[in-house]
Amino acid sequence: MTVQARRHVWMGAIPLHLHLHSSEVTSLPAPPPFLILAPRNGYLPLLVDAIRPHFNSALPPGSDTIWFDYQGLPLKWNIPTGVLFDLLCAEPERPWNLTVHFRSYPAGVLSLCEDEAVKWNFINALKEAFYVMYGNTKSIMNMSQSDQVELWHCVMKGDLEGYDRLAARVKPAFGFGANVGRGFGHPPSVAETAITNPVTRAGKPGRIPMRMYLRMVDQDLNDLFDVRPVSSWDDVVYVTCPIDVPKRQGTTLTLRDALMKVVPHLFSSSPTISNEVTSEAPSVMRASSNAVHNEFNGIVRVQGIEPSLDLPLDWVARNLCGPEHFVHLSVICTLVAPSLPPGAAD
Amino acid sequence: MEEAAVMEERMGLAVVQACRALRQRHREEEGAHGPALAALFTALSRPPDGELHGKMEALQLELSQSYQKQSQLSEQLLHEVTGAQAFREQLVERENSIVQLQAELLGARGRVTQLEEELEKKERALEASIEEMKALRIQVEELDAKLVKAQAENRMLIDRWMEQKMKDAERLNEANAMYEDMMERFKGKTLDDLARAQVDGIVRHSEAGAEDYVESGMPTSLRHAMRAHDGGCSTLKFEHGGGSLISGGHDRLVRTWDTERGVPLATLRGCLGSVLDLAMSHDDTMVLAASADHKLYLWEVQSGRIRHTLTGHAEKVCAVDYSKASNRRAVSAAQDRTIKIWDLQTGYGVNTIVCHSNCNAVALTMDGDIVCSGHMDGNLRLWDVRSGKSASEVAAHGQGITSVSLSKSGNAILTSGRDNVHTIFDVRTLEAQASFRALGFRVATNWSRSCLSGDESYVSAGSIDGSVLVWSRRLNETENSLKHHPSAVLACAWSNVRRRLASADKNGGICIWE
């Protein structure tokens, strides 16, 4: 089941409905909109080869880099497409209506996207993740050039098997090959497996690389259809937050624990034990159990799903991370956390 | 522990839920849209069905055909347009050329009118010239007529001339006959004379004139004084017959004078220089004049015409003498230090004698074989005429000899020199027989002529002071001094016939004394 989950994550794609921006239409009639499936773990500029031929005949002379906007907001190309979708489409919209631009690149808002910028962005993210996980980037730096290129090609194609094979070659602990074999067939054995597997322990990441995107909305989270669109990237906060993995045996962090640690203020009744989360396992347990009463005032999305906060972080890191090993959490929350009484949610 | 179990259970539930959510999401997103999109793309890229396909192909074919046609038509159009363009250009060109040609035509017309005008002018000129030619032709005809007339006249004149010639020839024949006759008589006379001379005991070699021998008398009075030559009279001679006098002067004329009446008889013209010396043929028919223009002129006295002009001297000819034996021979001396012997029949020089001193005076002996010449170095020289060689030489005077004159008999020769002495030499021995000088006497020029009287008893010479002195040979002293000339006396001459003495001065006057 988890194997399937991982495959779903890898195969995940968002249907895009692309319009050419009206200022760039030079043909009559305007070219019809273009439909395409964009991989969730991919990046928008990688679609250019498929999109350009469709609009080529309508384009004005000259050339520039392709870019996209959603409701007036230029989309950052260095954020995976799935994350953008989860974050910006408060209420999922399928297919996703985007406007495509081939001219007048907004260099002030977006960083320049040159030939291999997307690839380097990926590699850098990979390095960052490795640093977070192991404290160094040696294994990436030691990759041969051809392996690196092949890895990148696997990512672009969504070739999970090739990716896993390469990852295994780079470092036994890299990737999840060892665990994939065993799987998470039975949830009760999760913690056990993670602890007892010597290989895993040997290469066990010290921390889990997590990146959180926080979008504030001034509306009730239950009705997000008419939410005000994001007008500027200033309205979105995103942070890279490594989560320490407790060394102690028998302790399993959940997604809730991680969130408590990063954005404690989003919990309706902020527990006083926040400092103890990492230090004391029993208290964590208690906190987790107590957290039932602590309502999280926001929507968390990972890979297009809104997971239960009881989801073990370990599992999340293994199955819901992108190819660069980051776990992207999109969080939509109200601007001011409503101070609901603890029991109101029940 | 129970709590942990609960927790684990909850976590497992959450994982299951997450997996379900992922599947749900998959179904909603790529699972739902992927096949739809695939279907859409396959629909778009699916080939159209047969009928439509066939139709479309037909239509496409039609379209391509029509495209082809269109392209052909457009090509044709292009062709036509270019053709039209070319035609237009041609037209413009033609128009330009028409304009050009019109301009040329205008120019040509102008030229034509100009040429016509010129033609008219030319025609007029032609007419004028034709008229002129007519006139000229008429003139030519006239002239032809004149020519014919003149030819006729000429012929007539020639006839007349021939007639005259015939007459002349007849006369010449007559003269010859007469001459023959006279010669006959003369020979007879000579024989008689010879006989008589032998009877006298003296052999005389004299000419026919010797029979006219007359005793000379001392001239004492002036008979005539004549104004003869402008610029001076340099020479004068009496005819052998004695009747008339000839004179030559600086006015380039030779005149003959009647000594009796003192009037001029004739004037011989033709000489181009001053006449410096004269000679008369022994028969008095010819006069030979030596001129300063380097030539000698031979006149016939009768007609006054020049028979010959003798050329050959390079300087002025200062002396001349006629042979007393023959009419053909003459001798002349010039300032070019030559003495020339002439054949007067032909007018050619026969011989030339070159000497080192200028010759002022010459004389031929009676037989005409010896030339006596007086030179500037004061020597008297004798030359053989035939060989041209010096025969004899004598130092006669201290200074240059001015005159040499032979006596009538031919035995004595009188010379005068610039030492103012006159000497008589014996021709044969060249011994000085007598010499004359006088106080106050001075020879006027290098060519002052003195003379002996016919009987050889008197010597006369002109002085620079205008007096004419006469010496008696017998007394050997000055006998008379005749004074009338206003200037230096240049020449004097005795008449053979009558006792007359003629003298000429530098002013051109001639005095005849008796």
Automatic annotation (TrEMBL), chain A:
Coiled-coil annotated spans: none
Subcellular localization, as worded in the UniProt entry: Cytoplasm
Keyword set, alphabetical order: Autophagy, Cytoplasm, Isopeptide bond, Transport, Ubl conjugation
All copies of domain Autophagy protein ATG5 alpha-helical bundle region, residue ranges: 116-172
Autophagy protein ATG5 UblA domain boundaries: 9-102
Residue intervals of the Autophagy protein ATG5 UblB domain: 207-331
Cross-referenced Pfam families: ATG5_HBR, ATG5_UblA, ATG5_UblB
PANTHER family: AUTOPHAGY PROTEIN 5
Assembly and oligomerization: Conjugated with ATG12.
Job of this protein: Required for autophagy.
Family: Belongs to the ATG5 family.
Protein name as it appears in the record: Autophagy protein 5
Organism of this sequence: Sphagnum jensenii
Species lineage: Eukaryota, Viridiplantae, Streptophyta, Embryophyta, Bryophyta
Automatic annotation (TrEMBL), chain B:
Coiled coil start-end: 56-189
Positions annotated as WD repeat: 226-267, 268-309, 310-352, 361-393, 394-435, 482-514
Organism: Sphagnum jensenii
Domain Autophagy-related protein: start-end pairs: 50-173
Protein name: Autophagy-related protein 16 domain-containing protein
InterPro entries according to UniProt: ATG16, Autophagy-rel_prot_16_dom, WD40/YVTN_repeat-like_dom_sf, WD40_PAC1, WD40_repeat_CS, WD40_repeat_dom_sf, WD40_rpt
Keyword Ribosomal protein carried by entry: no
Alphabetical list of SMART domains matching this protein: WD40
